[in-house]
């Protein structure tokens, strides 16, 4: 079910837990998809608007780019984060749109390495299929909880992309990675 199941939302109250955020965002995203299934661009924009406040795209991108992040200029970091965000939303939507009858069930929360980290365990269920484990790693930043990684069937979205991104950077540099991501994102938009 591909990662992205990134769930995010408009401004969340400081009292909401990662589990509450995930429940609300999951419900909202599935409703957006059902109500706008004929308009892919509108669906993408609405889901992006819903997910963005709860996702720390810069941290996700820096983790996915790995050691190369520090050598990127601020403009390159911004471009990488923008393309990574687009990729995450695209991946998530592709998975949920493909399986229109998907449900996301929150299974509980696991403590992280410290008090400011939690993982919300969920399962994506599809009729007559085995549930797909999907976990959201949250970190508390100030008074807000933000998603910084998603794990699908035990595979971290960040770690999976770090290997791919590193190979592109070694071959074509950071600008090559930005170009590669932008081309994939644009190609996906045009095919819809």
Automatic annotation (TrEMBL):
Family annotation (PANTHER family): INTERMEMBRANE PHOSPHOLIPID TRANSPORT SYSTEM BINDING PROTEIN MLAC
Spans traversing the lipid bilayer: none
Domain of life: Bacteria
Protein name: ABC transporter substrate-binding protein
Signal peptide: none
Species, as recorded: Deefgea tanakiae
Record Gene3D superfamilies: Tgt2/MlaC
Lineage start: Bacteria, Pseudomonadati, Pseudomonadota, Betaproteobacteria, Neisseriales
